[in-house]
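Appendix B. Extra example for self-study. Work through it before the problem class; the solution is given directly after the inputs so you can check yourself.
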Amino acid sequence: MRVTGADWSRSGAAVDCRGRDVSPDAFAAAVRASGAVETADGRKLRVSAPTPGVVHEYVDAIRSGAKIALRPALAAAERTRPGTVDGVAALADAREALAAVEVPDVDVAGARERVAEAREAAEAVQADVAAARGAVQTREDLDGDVAAGRDRLRAAVAAASERETELVAAEQALARARERAREARDARSRRLVLEDRVGRLERDVRASRVRAAWPAFRAAVAAVPGGDETMTGSEPGSFAGDETMANSEPESFADDETMAGSEPGSFAGDGATAALAVARVADLSAPVVVAVDRFDAATDARRALDAPVVLASP
Amino acid sequence: MILVVTYSRAARQALRNACRAHEDAVVRRFGRAALLEATAFGAFLGLRLRERHGGDVQVERTSPLNEFEDAVEPAREAAVAYESRESPSTPYAKFAAGRDLPSKATLRERDL
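Solution. Structure tokens for the complete assembly:
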């Protein structure tokens, strides 16, 4: 990689940028960006390196006191490693089936609106007919001239019949649209079933990935500075949400995304240690910004994380 | 009442949230559907969901079925007679044939 600041630049797989007066976040942003970014004080910063993947959403910049969603982070890390876990093929199949569902586009609202308007118009003209008929009747009773009144009545009756025809046509169109909407809902129901299946399989695969990554994670926690083997149990933890600390209350999620498992989590270390270990477990080609004061030299961090490293001031 | 049926995960979740937030307007909740009070507020809740989620939300207006109305009466009589039949294995078609009851086809064609 190559890191280029306003009036300096460094290159290599382990770059020491401590004391450069650039925040870890700015370095992380520059790693994410394909071009140069502007730092808080308006200077240009550029990191030329491979594009980061999903793991960087969890370990783009490692600071002390930071929290990490350990389970999804470990699942993402496991994806970068060779090998596969159960359920991946089934998940791909389910996603493919989901993508293949076609839902016809049906506009029933337009048809509904047409019926409502036609009905209103038909009812309004009925009043005209009744009034015209009443007027003719009154004239007849008085032996008056009824010619003009009859013309009005004829016109009103003609308008009423026209609007009645429109109402019938609108109702038929609505019935047809409803029929099509019903068929479209069959497709939507199938799609929902598949969406739920994909969701279940995603959870299963994530859990499998966490299980698969756990032994490597335990070893990594013991290997990175600040960590030791007592921080992890042999069982994958049941971390629910953003907490990495053990014994936290499992969080309740409103959606179906509730993390499985109710046994106590088996990681008792701090977030920075977890993030360092996750970075070590993952196979990373994009640089990790390390802003914890645990390494003497950038090369130490690079060795510990087994990844390209930008060492930054906290 | 107002029946709201959802056809996607997002719409289903939005319906759950709406029902949780406005329990007073909810008559009954089912998995991905709910019956709301037949008030303008019930309609407002249903239509808001449809506005946001389009065809993934179906909104219908339901009305109670009065089985003693003329249009429904034959169906009620047929149901009462069939449910008190002596032989449980007799299919309706055969049961109706010997009696003064509407056939299945007649029932199907009769619009309420």
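Self-check: The CA atoms of residues 115 and 169 of chain A lie 9 Å apart. If your reasoning did not lead you there, revisit section 3.
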